[in-house]
Structures are given as C-alpha cells and as structure tokens.
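ugh ok fine here u go
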Amino acid sequence: MQTDSFKITANVVDIIHRRITPAEVTVAGGRIESIIEIADPATSGETPGKTPGGAPGCDTYLMPGFVDAHIHIESSMLTPCQFALAAVIHGTVATISDPHEIANVVGVEGVRFMLDNAEHTPLKVMFGAPSCVPATTFETAGAALDAKAVTALLDDPRIGYLSEVMNFPGVLMGDREVLAKMDAAKARNKPIDGHAPGLRGDDAAAYIRSGISTDHECFTKDEALDKHAAGAAILIREGSAARNFEALYTLIDEVPDKVMLCSDDKHPDELVRGHINELARRAVAFGMDPMNVIQAGCANPVHHYKLNVGLLQEGDPADFIEVNNLKDFNVLRTFIDGVCVAENGKALLPSPDDPELINLFEAEPIRPADLKLACPGHKARVIGALDGQLITEQRILDVKTAGGNVVSDPDNDILKIVVVNRYEKAEPAVALIQGFGLKSGAIASSVAHDSHNVIAVGANDNDLAKAINLVIESRGGLSVADAGTTEVLPLPIAGLMSTGSCIEVAEAYARLDAAVKNMGSTLRAPYMTLSFMALLVIPSLKLSDKGLFDGAEFEFVPVEA
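structure:
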C-alpha cells in the first residue's frame, strides 16, 4: 500500500467548479497538498461536463470516489471488512450503511459488531441508528430498540444519522416513540433517512416536512417528483432485487443537486462485478451528463451526510479514484486517505481476522406434516411476487386442494411459502405465492427482512421441510433441496453474514442460484426476492411468522378468499 507523498498527472475532475483540467496532483500526509494545472483547458479539448480530449500524457482521469448512499452491508452476506475488500476495487470509498438487519436479530450488540468490525478497514463507513426495530409489531424479531436505545446510539460519534424511518404511518399520526427518535436526531444535527413506498401528495409532503431528508423507495418518477417537491433528496436504487434505476435515472440531469445513487441490498455475486460505478456507467450510456452523474454518485452524499470524505480539492482527504474515462468508469486505482487500496481489479488490503460469531437462533426442525394449509374453499389469497420489485400483488386464485388442504401447484406456479419463527418454538406460518416458477424442490433462507425469521418457498412439502431444516441446523444460511440433492451456504454471523471473502461467498451463492434456476425459477435473484416476501412495510401482501399480512390495510388476512 502506498503511504508516502506522491504525485499523479491526469485529467482532474473538479466536481465543485464543474470543470476538468489536466493537472499534477500532489498527495502528502493523506491529504491533497496541491493541484497544479499543466495545460490551458481552452487548448486541451475540455468541455465542461463532457469527457475532455486531455493534454499530452494525460490518458486517465482522477475523480472523487463513489459513495453508496444507502446500503445494508449485511445483505451482501459479508462482514464490513470483507465487503470493503470487494467495494474498493470498484472505486467505492465510502458507504452510508444502515445496520438495521443485524439489529433486528441481536439488537444494539449487532450494531456494535458492525461498528467495531468496520474500524478495521479504511473504507469510510458511516452507520446509522436503526429507527424501526422491530419494523412492525406484526412479526417476531430478536430485539427491540426504543427511543432511549436509539438516542444512546446517536450519541456515538460513529453514528452519523437516523436510519430509514419505515413507520411512515407513525410519523403522520404523531406516534410518540417515532417522533422521539426523530427529535433525538434533530437535536444532534444528524440527518433522518426516509422510507415511504408509494406515499404521494399531501401525505408525502407531511412526511418529508416532519424532518425526513431522503427517500430510496420511489418506484415511479411521479412518486419521486412528489417527494422531491416536498424537499427530499431522491436516492436512485439499483439492488439485487429492487431495481428502480430505469424509472428514475433522468432525475440525474433534471435535479442533479437532489439525487444520489444507492444499492440498498446487494448480493455478493453482483458485488464481484460492480458497485456504484456500474450505475455511473449506465447513466452516461443513457445520455446523462457525466458531471451530473459524478455529482450524484460521489459529491451529493458527502454534502448531505457531512462525510469526512474528500472531493479532490486542495486540503481534502485524499479519497479519489483513477479511471480510464468518464464513460466506462473502469477503475484503475482507488485511494483512501492517500493510500492506494485497490489497483487493476485487486484490493491492496490485508485479509481481515476472523470475526466474532454473534447469533440468536432457537428454531427447532420441522416435519412436512407441519406445513399443512387448510382451505375449505377453492379460492385463496396468493402473494404475487414481481421480479425486480419489493412490492407484491394480492391475487385471488383458484387453488389445488387434497383432503381439505391446499397443495403446491407447480403447473400454475402456485407454491407454498413458509415463515418459521427463529427466536422461539412456534407453528410455521404457511401461505401461497406465485411468481417463483419452481417446478420442483424448495429453497429457504434466514435472510428475511426485516425480522429475519426462516423463510422458504417450494413445490412440495418434503423438500420444503428439508430446505428449512438445513437452515435451522446451520443456525442460519441459504439452502436448496430438490429430490434428495441438498446444499447450504452457512451464515453463522446472526444468520445474515458469512466469515468468508466476497469471492468465496459469491461462488457458493452462484451454485445455489444456478440450482434454483434449474428447478424452474425465472426470477433474476430468487433468494433476494424471497428475502423480501416477509417485509410487511412494503405492500401489498406479505407473510410474517404470525400469518398472512395485507400491507395496504396493515392487518392480517386469511389465506382463504
């Protein structure tokens, strides 16, 4: 790793003054000591906001590093240190990270785990204080963070903001506990992140006026414009399951000062291939101004969250990347605090020590007989899973029965979905889902937002029970079972994260993903989609460990229609 003073000559992207200038950059003591122009921009082919021709000898570009403006690191199934090893390769120098997932499992101890682990990597990770643990009272979680606990977290200087306030009905109705958490953030001058899928008009305006500063849940441009008009910054999300980039990317040129880029949830197989740099590449390919793209992907998060991250200005921390051009954004080198942490596709960081294994997993194995689903009639409410979306549809469909019980119907893609309480012994919750496309077998996971009980979907009860029991026996993980063939990816850290590297976890995940698709699933990311089928705060129909839940009406409903 490079730690001494050094100089780089390249085309320097000055995002503050929106110009690109061939220059010599001197780094000393981890900061930008000087930026000295070496050619007159007027004669170097430079056009503000466009890729310049460059001066002789300046074949590459220096620009601020990318910032993921909202991510749950746990969803990568990697520890913060292992996540960093993968992210810096793609030019990521910082993240805004919500430890909400691990907090739902083991509470404040989980947040402390993430904070402590991240201190062993140069990646600049700003964590938030989770605002909604548990997300709702309609599911069983492993912990609860009240206003007192959240306030204590906000007093930690490593906590920079209040994480996504998912309980937007509580905000609108003046719930004391919700408002107390928001007041604690305001008193400490820390931003408050939003989460209000589908909220429009006066309700959206009231939600934003309460102090909410961002929203990453917009799945239409009209919704985003509503929230932008009310004053929120719009985070354009492209994760492994929720993919809203194509609906929202034109905002990058329309309101460049009020948009950011984020992944929210990203599986390791995709992180191996790219991160925020991929969104930048796509945005430019779709015709967005490169300067606006860099502003959204690099500068806006730094300003909004007051990050100690440099923007390639004299005196700034030396956090920047060297890329081949401002179209492809192929990252040649990544620097954080003046240290070269990645070069030509390889991280230049030491392998982290084995982390502490913290967990809470009390579920016991189940039997196929435990998965019976009574439905005297022939019509049932069925969750309609949508590829690339967290929202679902509520469908009323004819179902296949035997002896008064519903059975999975792969021919019509109506399968059983199961949630098993991982925190205490309880009867499994069973319902129906359409959209997974499995013709045989079953899959299961202990990554099930937000409470992370065990969730499974399958074409028959025997394989469902096998897949679920594989996860239980491992005390967390992803599994597949199909006609006697089984495989599991263990996630021993809170049932959410592996101890392995991104490459190791990505390879194991890819094997599972391929197996699921060989079983008939046409979903782009079946495990990621499955993980959101228990997320009650995203409508319309979801399943918790307590039963089938109508997210629009915020109440339990029977399976029988």
